[in-house]
Amino acid sequence: MNIALVAHDNKKTLMENLCIAYRHILVKHELYATGTTGILIEETSNLPVHKYLAGHLGGEQQLGSQIANNDIDMVIFLRDPVSSKSYEPDISSVLRLCDIHNIPVASNLATAEVLLLALDRGDLDWRSLVREN
């Protein structure tokens, strides 16, 4: 499965910790992340990550393009709804594309954990069928 990982600045440490805690699941899949988030994940969890540009430099659009082309199977976008800055990626366009293309998406830690555990159980294997069509 292709998993996209994005985090607002105040949520990057949380994303790093999530990737460390669920490394045993994530290591079995292809990971994609916006620039800084991808670098941090690689450094802290030793997971290989395909890196987009930084979100504000076009990484969000690169992710959106992959979603629109049905190349992403799950998105974890840890957002900071309280203090996000104007230069940070805007989740609304990613959420919209995920809804259009029926891509499971998590925007907080609780939902991210549920999706990762479901992925490990095989509950998201249907994405492989969708991607083939």
- Roughly how much helix do the residues carry, as a percent range? 40-55%
Major sheet characteristics: 5 strands, parallel
Whole-number count of domains: 1
CATH superfamily: Methylglyoxal synthase-like domain
Number of strands: 5
Sheet/helix structural class: alpha/beta
CATH architectural designation: 3-Layer(aba) Sandwich
Terminal Cα span:
15 Å
Strand content: 5-15%
Based on CA inertia axes, which overall geometry fits?
Answer: globular
Q: Report the mean per-residue pLDDT as an integer.
A: 91
Strand order, largest beta sheet: 3-2-1-4-5
- Name the helix and strand elements from N-terminus to C-terminus, one letter apiece: EHHEHEHEHEHH
Number of helices: 7
CATH topology: Rossmann fold
Radius of gyration: 13 Å
Quickly name the level 1 CATH class: Alpha Beta
Low-pLDDT ranges: none
